[in-house]
Amino acid sequence: MVVSTALGDAMGAPVEKLTYGEIKSRYGRVESLMTRWHKMDLPEDMRLGRVRGDGIVTDDTLMTNALIRTYQAEGRHLDAYDMGREFVKEIAFRKTFVPELDRETFIMDRLFYPEKQIFLRHVLANAEPREGGLGNMVNCGAAMYIAPIGVVNAGNPKGAYDEAILFAMGHQSSYGLEAAGVLAACVAKAFEPGATVDDIVGTALSLAKDGTRAAIEELAAAARSLRARRDDRDAVVAVFHRIIAKYSPMGDDVSRHIDKVGVPSDHYTPSRLRSIEELPLALAYIVLNEGDYYRSILDGINSGRDTDSIGVMAGVILGAMHGAEVIEPGDIEQLDRVNRLDLLDIADRFAETAAAIIRQDMEAAATRRRLLAGIGCLGEEARR
């Protein structure tokens, strides 16, 4: 999961916000980490001082690692109060290397406004933590880093869903919050030995609500019907984008510019009928490619728009399903080198934390079983 977050993120980052047609025209097809950022030749001020490409990760990975460190600090399950305490410290008060900025700084310096909402609501506004996500732009910002919650609830999708909702409500609301819960559940399910793509999608559908559920169901069905034509990428993207437009109407117009200011819209606002597009599309490409790791990630990235987050969401589910062995060693080496990370070490240390939390859960469950057995014996004696 840890390496897959960085891999999907870094592969999608160089083409983020480009349309499917623009990616096809400029790149043919993105197929590796070693891709040049489409903005790299612009003046520094026009790219906000950032660099991307050749394996550099974005805020998706930085926030995921911040959540991992929060688990390591607390050593237990989390909720919105932990977002308002330890997690906000990780993103706003403790420096780390930010690859896009090529310097040690606060993650906050890199975050998009909806993610800076965490600092605004929990530090400046001193909001009730469980209401921290209210009023925020509804987007994929929580779902993109929520996968560690699936890890500490491995094999317990409902537990992962519940914890993700309780934690991410400090950041997101509506279908943005719902997507976080569903993604965490998918990761938890993917860890089960022998779990299949159909099992994972079935888990998503059993827990997802409203527009999120409808979008996943419709796109998964379309993906199954398109398997025989999966190499006709133009046709696949056209079908997928036509379907997701019912639930996420922005389409290819994902950039913010002056002409949009003051124009009424229901984009990014709370709704029971909408869905973010990243999670349903990631699941659709997993279904289309029957769980093939690299092809699912790459098809998602090359479909355009929020490419890094689509790559992350497909990656974390399939990374949990297949394990780190499915990832090319050269990709791990490149990610570590340019981002100054040791991803396998981060994963190993987080696995120890997650295992400790799961052991606590199992011990608590055993205690409850013994208690229930004792109650049963008392009942039997009373009947006598």
Task: Provide structural commentary.
With 384 residues, the protein is mostly helical. It has a single domain (2-210, 305-370), classed as ADP-ribosylglycohydrolase fold, CATH 1.10.4080. The protein is built from 16 helices and two strands. Strands 1-2 form a two-stranded antiparallel ribbon. It is globular, with a radius of gyration of 21 Å. The model has no long low-confidence stretch (mean pLDDT 95).
Summarize the structure.
The chain has helices spanning 2-12, 20-27, 59-74, 80-92, 113-124, 147-152, 157-168, 174-190, 197-207, 210-225, 233-244, 278-288, 293-302, 307-322, 329-339, 343-383; strands at 95-98, 103-106. It has 384 residues and is an all-alpha fold.
Reported for the largest beta sheet, the result is: 2 strands, antiparallel
Q: Can you say what the CATH homologous superfamily is?
A: ADP-ribosylation/Crystallin J1
Question: In one word, what is the shape?
Answer: globular
**What would the CATH topology be?**
ADP-ribosylglycohydrolase fold
Give the topology.
Elements: H1 2-12, H2 20-27, H3 59-74, H4 80-92, E1 95-98, E2 103-106, H5 113-124, H6 147-152, H7 157-168, H8 174-190, H9 197-207, H10 210-225, H11 233-244, H12 278-288, H13 293-302, H14 307-322, H15 329-339, H16 343-383
Antiparallel strand pairs: 1-2
Helix pairs in contact: 1-3, 1-14, 3-4, 3-16, 4-5, 7-8, 8-9, 8-14, 9-10, 10-11, 10-12, 12-13, 12-14, 13-14
Keywords summarizing the entry:
384 residues, mainly alpha, ADP-ribosylglycohydrolase fold, globular, two-stranded antiparallel sheet
